[in-house]
Amino acid sequence: MSAEVGEVLVGKKPTASYIQAILTAAARGVSEVVLKARGRNISKAVDVSQLALRIVLKDFEVSNVSIGSEEVAGGRRVSTIEIRMRKKA
Amino acid sequence: MSAEVGEVLVGKKPTASYIQAILTAAARGVSEVVLKARGRNISKAVDVSQLALRIVLKDFEVSNVSIGSEEVAGGRRVSTIEIRMRKKA
Prior knowledge:
- Two copies of one chain form a homodimer.
- With 89 residues, chain A is an alpha+beta fold.
- Chain A is built from two helices and four strands, in the order E-H-E-H-E-E.
- The longest helix of chain A has 15 residues, at 41-55.
- The N and C termini of chain A lie close together (10 Å).
- In chain A, strands 1-2-4-3 form a four-stranded mixed β-sheet, with helices on one face.
- Chain A binds chain B through residues 39-43, 46-47, 49-50, 62, 65-69, 77, 79-81, 83, and chain B through 39-43, 46-47, 49-50, 62, 65-69, 77, 79-81, 83.
């Protein structure tokens, strides 16, 4: 089993683009996939994780979800999420 | 310390409505607040948690975040999130 991690930043593209990125990571044999998103894209990141677990990463499971916030330009704060999915033991 | 839990369903209302609901729960002396949301409202639930921790629940911290999906009318699936915040030990 590879110890390599696939990191996918979920932004404004359609959900399918991120599923494709995860497929590519899966083809590389990664043992962990990390999805990161901010603001409005947080909902999309959760959608991507659920879809990926159902159709691409069938032998993976969510190992950790963490949320937080970051200061961006203008002192405004934006919420963040990090979803870690690992190959089942 | 109360063992009571305040549950807040984050939906279509403005963020401030949910902060108000949390304020009400905090005034009741709850030791745990649980935010639940589905679909597009997931991003808002994370915003509500971050704002609440900064301005209302200053002695609380995120104790668990779980994500999943549910089948809704028409066999469509919708993503879900549950954010638990607990009074710091």
